């Protein structure tokens, strides 16, 4: 192949480094795979860096994105700790980590569309740097201030600087807002989280290990949350009280869930339960990472949780979610008609997004544990009845 005759295939599989099929020279013989599925088409970069739950929520745009641009290549950049959330997602072609090497690569690609939904200076600064014909979402102005890049991003932008709109007036979900920001048709598509075949096998092995009983209802307790907003979780005492209240129902098995930051917390909850109740609790490992944490959650029918990544994961896994809220905005969460949201509707200071509460966390104290018990038992009764009919 002569240099002046070099024609690079616009195929997703071509790297310019090695052949995608051994001993096949696609430059000489023509590309085998440059079809509608593998053509690069419209190049789209999604910037979604901050908050694991938000990264997972933003996967809800992918189906609408592919409907709008059926022949396209989707690049996604996120923080290193969020990359595993996006694994095994066939609607994302390339996943990049938020490090200098990957940012350097992306700066050298000419994109057709850039989508940045993150309102942080570093995400917006990077959005400014990337070469793209069209940019939607947020960037920086000449003073280093975060600004909307398109008219459709104005509602999302205004919510960030107008507490009345965000806390009192807004009724749109986060998914609807990000669709609007990116000028995509909102079909109320769900989050996307796909297990690998190996993970599905691991789940079955774990079920064998815990002697999983399909006639029982498994109730997951996502006990913690990010250290960024530590007041988004129930007290240890509330968890213990709730588990004890549910333990009188022989059809229920309780499952303690959480990440590495919840290790000591879950152990304390477990140790405060009587031996009799402990025998009804599955204590899952907390230090195995996001993907294994999702495997443990998958055995649950119900997940009881605060507003955290665990809540978003439970939504993605289509569990029946009972979520409580205090400082954060329950209006922005869509359970997709598969759960119940509990929030202090009559508490004037909630939501607030404060990291330190001046009022002794009234919103957490007001969580209606008895209502949670009723919701769990009602769901369990319905599911058991349905199983018996089948």
Characteristic terms for this protein:
Rossmann fold, 16% strand, single chain, 390 residues, alpha/beta, 12 strands, six-stranded mixed beta sheet, 16 helices
Structural notes for this entry:
The chain has 390 residues and is of the alpha/beta class. It has two domains: 141 residues, Rossmann fold, CATH 3.40.50; 193 residues, 3-Layer(aba) Sandwich (Rossmann fold). It is 35% helix and 16% strand. The chain has 16 helices and twelve strands. The chain has a six-stranded mixed sheet. Strands 9-8-7-10-11-12 form a six-stranded parallel sheet, with helices on both faces. Strand 4, helix 5 and strand 5 form a beta-alpha-beta unit. The model has no long low-confidence stretch (mean pLDDT 92).
Task: Describe the secondary structure blueprint for this structure.
Elements (H helix, E strand, L loop, with lengths): L25 H4 L12 E6 L4 H7 L3 H7 L3 E7 L15 E4 L2 H8 L3 E6 L4 H9 L2 E9 L5 E3 L5 H8 L1 H7 L4 H8 L15 H13 L7 E6 L13 H11 L5 E6 L5 H9 L3 H4 L2 E3 L6 H9 L3 E5 L2 H8 L3 E5 L14 E4 L19 H4 L3 H21 L1
Parallel strand pairs: 1-2, 1-4, 2-3, 4-5, 7-8, 7-10, 8-9, 10-11, 11-12
Antiparallel strand pairs: 5-6
In short:
This protein has 390 residues and is α/β, with parallel strands linked by helices.
Kindly report the oligomeric state of this protein. single chain
- CATH fold description of the largest domain: Rossmann fold
> By CATH's scheme, which homologous superfamily of the largest domain applies?
Glycogen Phosphorylase B
CATH architecture of the largest domain: 3-Layer(aba) Sandwich
Q: Mind summarizing the main beta sheet?
A: 6 strands, mixed
Strand content: 15-25%
In N-to-C order, the SSE pattern is: HEHHEEHEHEEHHHHEHEHHEHEHEEHH
Instruction: State the helix count.
Output: 16
Number of domains: 2
Helical residues, percent:
25-40%
CATH class value of the largest domain: Alpha Beta
Q: List low-pLDDT spans.
A: none
- Order of strands in the sheet with most strands: 3-2-1-4-5-6
Distance between the termini: 65 Å
Overall body shape: globular
Mean pLDDT: 92
């Amino acid at each position: 192949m002569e240099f002046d005759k070099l024609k690079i295939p616009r195929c997703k599989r071509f790297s310019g480094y090695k052949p995608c099929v051994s001993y096949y020279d696609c430059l000489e013989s023509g590309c085998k795979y440059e079809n509608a599925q593998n053509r690069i088409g419209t190049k789209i970069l999604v910037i979604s860096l901050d908050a694991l739950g938000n990264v997972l929520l933003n996967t809800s745009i992918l189906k609408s994105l592919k409907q709008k641009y059926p022949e396209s290549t989707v690049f996604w950049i996120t923080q290193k700790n969020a990359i595993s959330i996006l694994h095994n997602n066939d609607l994302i072609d390339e996943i990049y980590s938020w490090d200098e090497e990957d940012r350097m690569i992306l700066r050298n690609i000419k994109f057709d569309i850039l989508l940045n939904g993150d309102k942080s200076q570093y995400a917006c600064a990077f959005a400014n740097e990337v070469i793209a014909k069209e940019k939607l979402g947020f960037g920086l102005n000449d003073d280093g201030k975060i600004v909307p890049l398109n008219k459709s991003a104005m509602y999302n932008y205004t919510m960030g600087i107008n507490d009345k709109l965000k806390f009192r007036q807004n009724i749109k979900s986060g998914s609807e807002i990000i669709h609007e920001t990116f000028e995509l048709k909102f079909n109320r598509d769900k989050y996307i989280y796909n297990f690998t075949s190996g993970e599905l096998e691991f789940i079955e092995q774990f079920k064998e290990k815990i002697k999983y009983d399909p006639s029982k209802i498994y109730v997951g307790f996502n006990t913690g949350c990010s250290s960024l907003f530590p007041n988004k979780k129930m007290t240890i005492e509330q968890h213990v009280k709730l588990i004890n209240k549910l333990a009188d129902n022989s059809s229920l098995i309780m499952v303690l869930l959480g990440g590495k930051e919840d290790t000591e917390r879950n152990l304390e909850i477990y140790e405060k339960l009587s031996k009799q109740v402990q025998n009804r609790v599955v204590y899952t490992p907390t230090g195995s990472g996001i993907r294994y944490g999702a495997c443990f959650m998958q055995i649950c029918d119900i997940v009881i949780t605060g507003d955290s990544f665990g809540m978003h994961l439970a939504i993605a896994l289509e569990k029946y979610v009972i979520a409580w809220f205090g400082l954060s905005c329950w209006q922005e969460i869509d359970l997709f008609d598969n759960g119940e949201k509990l929030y202090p509707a009559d508490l004037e200071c909630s939501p607030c997004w404060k990291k330190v509460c001046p009022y002794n966390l009234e919103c957490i104290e007001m969580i209606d544990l008895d209502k949670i018990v009723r919701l769990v038992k009602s769901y369990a009764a319905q599911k058991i009845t349905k199983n018996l009919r089948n």
